[in-house]
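Structure (tokenized):
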């Protein structure tokens, strides 16, 4: 007798939950307009990468300087990079920005002669890039910055550059 009651009760619970799962759900709230788009406002107040890629065989990384002025940049070079010939540093108008560069096997350090002011844009272009291996590669450049008046490096982001060999 107990098994008949438990069996009936189990069947009732299962059928009730199956109906609840199959019932369509309305996602809009009463009085809301479905045609309204959700918007997310981001207030970015730190330097960040706005673009990166390959142009005329040269790799470039573009940064927006936001918040405080930038004193220097450090770019970690990818392990697939064999070498590069030079570095060009420009502002948003294409005008050269004077800076001192130090190049090691793993890093490129850029110290600006005058701090880059907030609201500006900086583009770092690596010329004559040679890399190890062939085929499709993804090169990842880690970028950190140092702001005027602050000690320590601030992580800016990772610039991704996709390389396609023409074979």
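Design, position by position:
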């Amino acid at each position: 007798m107990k098994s008949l009651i438990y069996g009936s009760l189990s069947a009732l619970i299962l059928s009730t939950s199956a109906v609840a799962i199959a019932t369509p759900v309305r996602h809009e709230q009463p009085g809301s307009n479905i045609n309204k788009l959700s918007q997310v406002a981001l207030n970015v107040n730190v330097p960040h990468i706005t673009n990166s890629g390959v142009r005329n065989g040269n790799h470039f990384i573009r940064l927006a300087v936001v918040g405080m002025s930038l004193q220097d940049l450090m770019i970690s070079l990818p392990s697939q990079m064999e070498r590069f010939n030079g570095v060009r540093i420009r502002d948003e108008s294409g005008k050269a920005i004077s800076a001192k560069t130090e190049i090691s096997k793993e890093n490129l350090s850029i110290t600006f002669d005058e701090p880059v002011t907030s609201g500006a844009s900086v583009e770092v272009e690596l010329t004559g890039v040679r890399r190890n291996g062939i085929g499709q590669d993804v090169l990842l450049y880690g970028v950190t910055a140092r702001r005027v008046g602050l000690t320590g490096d601030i992580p800016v982001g990772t610039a991704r550059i996709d390389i396609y060999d023409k074979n």
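Reviewer-requested clarification: The CA atoms of residues 54 and 60 lie 6 Å apart. The mean pLDDT is 81.
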